[in-house]
Amino acid sequence: MIRVLLADDQAMVRGALATVLGLENDIEVVGQVGSGDEVVAAAREAKPDVALLDVQMPGKDGLEAAADLRAALPSCRVIICTTFGRPGYLARAMAAGAAGFVVKDAPPEQLVEAVRRVHSGLRVVDPALAAESLATGASPLTGRERDVLREAKDGSTVADVARALHLSEGTVRNHLSAAIGKTGARTRAEAVRVSEERGWL
Amino acid sequence: MIRVLLADDQAMVRGALATVLGLENDIEVVGQVGSGDEVVAAAREAKPDVALLDVQMPGKDGLEAAADLRAALPSCRVIICTTFGRPGYLARAMAAGAAGFVVKDAPPEQLVEAVRRVHSGLRVVDPALAAESLATGASPLTGRERDVLREAKDGSTVADVARALHLSEGTVRNHLSAAIGKTGARTRAEAVRVSEERGWL
DNA sequence: GGGCACCCCTGACACTTGTCACGACGAGGT
DNA sequence: ACCTCGTCGTGACAAGTGTCAGGGGTGCCC
C-alpha cells in the first residue's frame, strides 16, 4: 500500500484526485490539506510515502512546503502537481528535492503512474517541460530585481515600491530598468508578465 | 440516468471529476472536451442533460460556450464550474442562461448535488458569491473601456493599444483614464488587476 | 426636438517612467 | 591586491502616461 498525502487549495479537485487515487488498490490517501502551512504537520501525523503538492496555495508555497517536508521527513517523497508548466517551477521543484513534477494538463492515469514510479525510487518529469526548462535557462534576475518586480506586480508606482522596500526611487527605477532589459520587455508590466511565465517570480 | 458533458482544459481535473461523477449511480458522463469550441459539437453528439463548463478554456470562453449551447440545445442545462469566484462571472453566467454556478473551492459532493438539483429544474448558486455579486454591482465600464483595458493587460504601451484597436493615442489615453477613475485605481496596471478580480474583463 | 450616453478626436499640461552615465560600498573569487 | 558582481545612490534627459477641457459625431429614449 502506497500512503499518499494530498495538498491543493481547491477542495473540489483535491477531493476528486483523492477519489481517483483511492480507487487504485495499491494506493491509499491518508491525508488532505488545503494550504502549504499544514503540510508538514499533516505529514508527521499521517506518515505518507508520497506527498502530492500543488504549487499555488494560500500561505506557504507548494515549493517551499516541499523543501520543509524534505527536511522534516526525508523518507517522504514529493511530487509537485501544478496547473502551469512554468520552466522555473520545475527547476525550483528539483532544487527543493522533489522527485516528480506533473502538470494538470496530463491525463489522470499519469498521476497514478507518477505516484507508483516515485514510490519505487524513480524520478518523474514531463520530458517536454524539461526541455523547455533547459532552453529557458535559469533566472538572470538578481535578488533585488526580483524583489522590485514582485512588488511592482500589482500595479504599484515607483514611489510605492521604494517605500515598501526602503529604497530610493532612483534605485528602484534602475533595478526595474535592468529587469526590463533582461526580460527583453519594453514595459515594467511586460517584464512582470514574462518573469511570471518563466517562473522567475 | 443523468447524462453529463464535461468541459475543462485541464485533463487531470476533468478526468478526476468524470470519475467522481461516474461513481454515482444516477449519473453518467457521456462526453468530455478540453476547449470551449468543441462544446456544442460534442453536445449535439452526446445529447447530455447537463453540461459542466469551466470558465477559462482555450478558444471559446466557458461563458460564451454556455450561451452557444443554450441556443443550440435549449433542453441541455448548464452549470459553470470555475476556479475563481469572480462576481462578474456569476452575473455573466446567469445572463448566458446558466442554471448553476459552482466554485472549485467547494467540496466535490457539492458538485454532484448541483448536477442533481439542476437536472431537476432548480437553480444552484453559491449564496456567499451571490451576495458579493450584488454588492459589487454590474460593471461600470463601457465597451470600449473594457476593450482598451483588455488590450493593455499584458503590458502594451498606449501606442500598441492604439494600433491594435485602430484608435488615436489620445483616445486610448482617455478611455484608460476613465477606466482608472471608475475602478478607483491610480495606475493602468492597477485598473487591470481590479477589473480582472471583479470579472469585468 | 432635446437630453443623454457613448464614441472618437485634439491639444496641452504635469507627472511618472525608462534609460544612461557615473560614483561608492561590500562580498567573493583569482 | 585585483577584478567582478551585486547593491544603492545621484543627476539628468527623453519618452510615455494620466488628466483636463474642449469639439464633433452617433444612436436611443422621453
Describe this structure in words.
Two copies of one chain form a homodimer. The first copy, chain A, has 201 residues and is an alpha/beta fold. In chain A, 53% of the residues lie in helices and 14% in strands. The first copy, chain A, has ten helices and six strands, in the order βαβαβαβαβαβααααα. The first copy, chain A, has a six-stranded parallel β-sheet, sandwiched between helices. The first copy, chain A, is elongated. Chain A starts with a strand and ends with a helix. The interface between A and B is large, with 36 and 36 residues. The structure holds a DNA duplex (30 and 30 nucleotides).
What is the residue-averaged pLDDT of chain A?
94
Name the assembly state: homodimer
Instruction: Summarize the largest interface: chains and residue counts.
Output: A-B, 36 and 36 residues
- Assign a percent range to the helix content of chain A: 40-55%
Number of helices of chain A: 10
Radius of gyration of chain A, whole Å: 19 Å
Biggest sheet layout of chain A? 6 strands, parallel
- Beta-strand residue fraction of chain A: 5-15%
Termini separation of chain A (Å)? 38 Å
- What are the low-pLDDT stretches of chain A, counting only 5+ consecutive residues below 50? none
Beta-strand segment tally of chain A: 6
In the sheet with the most strands of chain A, the strands line up as: 2-1-3-4-5-6
| Overall geometric form of chain A | elongated
Please identify the structural class of chain A as seen in this structure: alpha/beta
Order of helices and strands of chain A: EHEHEHEHEHEHHHHH
